[in-house]
Amino acid sequence: MANEMSEEQREEMALLAQKLATNPKTRKGFLGLIKTADPDSVIPELDAAAELEARFDTALKTEREAREALETRIRDTRLEEEVLTHRRKLADSGFSQDEIKGVEDSMTEMQKNHEVVGYETAARLYRQDHQSAEPSGDTVTRFKVPDTKGILENPTQWALNEADAFLKERLHPRSYI
Asked: Which of 71, 72, 117, 172 has the most CB within a 10 Å radius?
């Protein structure tokens, strides 16, 4: 196609190329097109910029990785401190080391089920699951062992006598003070 151009068309193309090459807004794109069309061509302006950009990208990547590693270490340290604080609080409130491990195992299990709970909730649930219930009554029921004398001779009479004694005791209790 270049061979089929007239001299006048070639001059117009040369003028256009010169305008593109000298205009600061179009120069980089124009040089980039030349490099794309002929990758082996030496264009110091682009080659130096590409080298500088590659060095900058490498330095930026290195800095980013170092920053991310530092952020990860800081986050891990804070998490460890938080876990130790919660463990200390549990120990101070009477949990043994085995119970604290049980609380943390419970939390892990709940997270597997997509249930997110904190140490306080997990500790409360753990205690509810593993602690015996406190006795609910504060009165002591006194029980008198029945006298079995006469049970074999006349069981019916013996049962009536025991029932009568029980009712008398309930209706008119004796003071044990």
From this structure: 117
Structure token digits, residue 28: 């980089």
> Distance (Å, rounded) from C-alpha 31 to C-alpha 131?
79
C-alpha 126: how far from chain center:
19
User: How many residues are given for the chain?
Assistant: 177
Residue type, 109: E
- Over residues 54-74, the pLDDT tens digits come to 899 999 999 999 999 999 999
- Per-residue tokens: 99: 């119970």
Task: Determine the angle formed by the axes of helices 97-112 and 44-92, rounding to 10 degrees.
Answer: 130
CA distances in angstroms from 54 to 48, 57, 123, listed in the order given? 10, 5, 54
Cα 116-121-127 angle, rounded to 5 deg: 130
